[in-house]
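Work package 3, deliverable 3.1, input record:
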Amino acid sequence: MVSQFARSLSELCIRHRGVVAFLILISTLLMALTLLKMDVRTVFSDMVPSDHEYVDVHETYKETFGGSNKVSILVQAKSGDIMTRPILTEVQRITRELAKVSGVNPFQVVSLASRKLKSVSASSMGIESVPLMWPDVPETAQGIEELREAILNNPLVYGIYVEPDLSSTLIQMDFYDHLVDYSKIFPQVQAILDASPIKDQVSHHVVGEPILYGWVDFFLEETVAISLISLGAMLLALFLLNRTWRGTLLPLLSGVVSTIWALGIGVLLGFNFDPLVIVVAFIITARCFSHAVQLITRFDDLCDGEGVAPRKAAEQTMRELFRPGLLGLVSDAGAILCVVLTPIPLLQKVSIIGAIWVMTIGFSAVILTPVMLSWVKAPLRNAHPLNLRFLLNAVLGLAVKVVETRARFFVLPLTLVAVGLLVFKATDLTIGDATTGSPILWEDSSFNRDSALINASYPGTEQMFVVLEAEERDALKRPDVLAWMQSFQRRMERLPQVGGSISLADIVVDVRRNLYEGNPRYRELGSSQLENGELISFYMQGAAPDDLAQFADPLFKNGSVILFFRDRQGETLRQATYQIKQFIAANPLDGVEVRLAGGSLGIIAAVNEILLSDQIEAIALALLVVILSCLAVYRSSASGIFFIVPVLISNVVTFAFMAWQGIGMSISTLPVVALGIGLGVDYAFYIVDSVKEYLEKEPDADPVEAIRQSLFSAGRGVLLTSVTLAAGVLFWSLSSLRFQAEMGTLIGLWLLVSAFTSLFVMPSLVRVLQPKFIFGDRPSGTEAKHGAGPLAQSTQ
Amino acid sequence: MVGKVLGFAAQVAPWAVVSGLAYAAAFVKPSVEPLPLPQPLTESRDTFYDVSATGSDHFWFAGNNGVVLEGGTDPSSWARHSMPHNINLQGIATSDDGLVLAVGNEGWTFRREGEGQWESTQLPVSDIAGKLIEVAWLGDGFFAIGEMGAVFRSNAEAQDWTNLSIDGDVGLNDITRDGAGVLWITAEFGTVYQSDDNGKSWSGEELGYESLRSVEFVDGTGVIVGNGGVIFRSTDGGNSWTSVPSPTSEHLYDVIHDGSRWLAGGNGGVLLESANGDEWNLLTPESGTTGYVARLLPASDGVVVAGKEIGQLDGEHWNTWPATRGEEK
């Protein structure tokens, strides 16, 4: 049925080639117009899982207990401490300017110069609470000295917002999540810091999600440049190896058409494009190139080897390669579409647009390329004299040699041993970030250096909060509830990665200390709910209404304990959530439910928790798609296990490589892995189907001959595209974005492993196992009758 | 036969692979090797309020959350003790026989003889304010003082307690005995109490309005320090007290004489020194203490400090303790 459809379609397309080409090109032009509205930016909400308990907690309390877009700015004195009027004035200037940044919550800009940080002083006459350095910076040395003493005596400021040796101070800001635009925040904050009038006296260091993604946006131009260089390199390689303009320009044409269609449809669907997933676009373009190159290679074989006229050759090419091409595209699209089940909007968008993109290849490569080939006038003319095909032939000759000799019997056991060892290594793969800094940027990047500096001097830049939800109002004032907070904080602070924590209990004990003339012996909770309520009332005297919002709601029914982390590694978060759950289970609170976890780390912990199961689920479903596709096309479920082999090998190799290189499995790597499954199987489809096609045409042919012609035809296309694309992705290693560089390497590795599995493993499996879906009901001794000398010997 | 089996296996294998992965997707979760998180020797939230010594090189620190730390210059000697009642400990003292007694909130006392277990006793204090703020070994027994005028005296074994409390809502902060055997107590609201009958009766004198935190006598010279950095000095055995200029307005929590000089410490880690208790200077140790200084204890190699941090002040050199981790007992 597929063959009949392929025949009809190829005849139709070539007969009406002008119309087909015109329709595709005019559609492409129209789609190109929509790209003017393309929105390239990272949207944080896209990365938030939609149905996870941590996310529910975060979404419910993010406006009060802390959002996921905090920015921390460290102002560090280059010599001495910050207690000088110029530096304090600089802190004030930055604080005031930050309130103007796009999307900022002006009530959440906290620094020495904000109203939030107060000096609580006590004497035998009572307590008073006044902002530390608001609205004015002290003008005299005595004023600065008093400020210094006020800082030293305030445990909620000293060590939290001011480094213990007073050499630096922290300014923190938070944003309204729905107003966050990373592309605006980053340049605005940088401009504020660049405008510093005392750069000779202070250095600025800035971290936070908006800054991180601001850096990604900052490198967008570089990313595009690398993409173009990479593309150019691939085209050059194609030109050198193919020696024809059609072999170079038609893959480019296919890629451009597909890209425009897919992005255009994305714009029409209202999707934004995250610069981080540009590698996904690259992989799909690689698929497009691969299909086009297969078609061109077959076309060249027909024209060159069999002397078929270009128009006829184009039609035959389309007909012959329609089945593996369709199979590859359906598998690719199916594999990436499986990611849509992951409840993360970014991945769902990538999945939908990826599947659409892959399917457009059906038009841009499978149809358009043969149509364009049909106009070739001089198929045998080379565009340049340099012939590098001997390199390809040498590799392909080796592949044939493996199949022809007894080496083929060693292929399966050797592969099994290698895969076994790699599976062992792959078990070290980290779920979540595997590095202390952001894995998106290089370790020595400005962002990661700033992050390390701040985490070394302060409790931690990354935050997670747990929520206490009580049944009754004022429950948070209960001594047992506050004592639970203290005990919980002590427990969690034993974790090496937890730099500190803060809660309402810390406020209460500090107020009580101040109420007792600042005596540290009274830095303890009140003995009753009433007393704690009074202590909180003391704190609120003269305070802004939202001063306690970070710790409790106005009814004191729901409260938070905020934990500061020094890194966001997957292991850190798993350990933390495990310890939190253990503590909650071991220390139940009457009438209070403790829920985890909000804040940026709560979200990441949620993502990490679903990543592994979703990754396995995506692989399982992708394999199911492969099996169903094989079942539909070859009418054999056994063919499924055959094509799963290259997928499993490339998956295992890639996971082992990730474990070896310390690349964690993250929200960004998941679509790459899902698409890699398509990469793994495509090459095998072309090679195995070519064998089958040959044997269908020549039922009495020698299987080795069928494999040989397959390797030198489809195999050449596989080798050509994999080497070309792998060479292209090498340029990604130059990226300032570590993620892009690592994913480039990953894709290159995937391409090569898939190709070499298809060239060296699959042919041997075909010959050794002689699957029925390829060989039909041929008697097992068939090849001996037709085989050459070495073949006859090897099979006896 | 073999061919049929292999053929069947080939037909089933793809579904088995997918089923296996589906099972893994449903049930395999990222595992975590839980850290045991044993009780560390010290925690960042630990604060200490008093220190005492057994021998010349072994010290006992009492702090919040029912914690007593013991140790000295030998890093391996450190250990953490958690009291059976999780209350804040305020004072600690050691007898000449090495008995250790810690006191704290709600009238709780904890005694330990040698390597024995901690034994707790709750003294009859006020339900409203029952903090025992200080305990001292004064030659023949322990004196524990605290809020609401609480004064208790025990025998040398810290087992039989006598209530010698002062009437009135006043917090008592420090107790000492001068060379003449007179007991002195510094208290809230600028009051200093004295008793020349071993605590049976007390007479008070107000030296201003700032709470007085600590008193010390050496050879007839007495020094009292208190809130707002106030310092009083007596050169006539406590008959009269004179305010002396203070270089700080920080609250001062303790005053001692280390054999060669007077030392006082207080809020913000402030440390003062004086040769004769009359003229005081700020002391700025290298990498000094932070937070506050609650108690000072003369030792053979300097002065041991209890506060937000614990450690030893050797001349002007500050060593934070403990240098290494010990164990919980």
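Chain A touches chain B through 53 residues (CB under 8 Å).
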